[in-house]
Amino acid sequence: MTEIYDFITRETEQTNIHLMIESSTYFVAKHYGISIPDVLSMSIDDFEQSFVWASAMKTIEGEQIESATKDVKGGTRIQTTKAGQAFPYE
User: Fold this and answer.
1) Could you tell me the CA-to-CA distances from 24 to 40, 42, 47, 56 in Å, in that order?
2) Alpha-carbon distance 3 to 20, whole Å?
3) Helix (H, G, I), strand (E, B), or coil: what is residue 68?
4) pLDDT digits 0-9 by tens, 4-45
5) Do 40 and 25 touch, CB atoms closer than 8 A?
6) Cα distance between residue 84 and residue 33, in whole Å
7) What's the rounded Cα separation, in Å, for the pair 26 and 23?
8) Cβ–Cβ < 8 Å for 29, 35
């Protein structure tokens, strides 16, 4: 458990190939909502494509969260409609 924790928190060098494979397997399974045995039964090509797409989506999600967080911290506000005013098409 400590070895996995240290790997995830990057408190040790990322040179443990076994943990790299396990964490990649878990990442793909978690992203697609499938079981680890399902991931392990994938062909190398299918796993590689799944991993690359999941990684890309995770990067995009992170960028979107960061942007939204900056907007909130920066005071960007979303305008709301004002009660009692007619819509333009009414």
Assistant:
1) 11, 13, 9, 14
2) 12
3) helix
4) 887 778 776 677 788 889 999 999 999 999 999 999 999 999
5) yes
6) 45
7) 5
8) yes
CA diameter of the chain: 65
Exposure string (b/e) for 32-58, b if CB count within 10 Å is 16 or more? Answer: eeeeeeebeebeeeebeebbeebeeee
**Residue 15 token pair:** 């040179």
What token pair was written down for 24? Answer: 């990649």
**54 and 28 in contact (C-beta within 8 Å)?**
yes
Q: How many other C-beta atoms can be found within 10 angstroms of the C-beta atom of residue 73?
A: 8
Q: What is the token pair recorded at 32? A: 């697609």
Amino acid type, 4: I
pTM: 0.64
Cβ distance 58 to 31 under 8 Å? yes
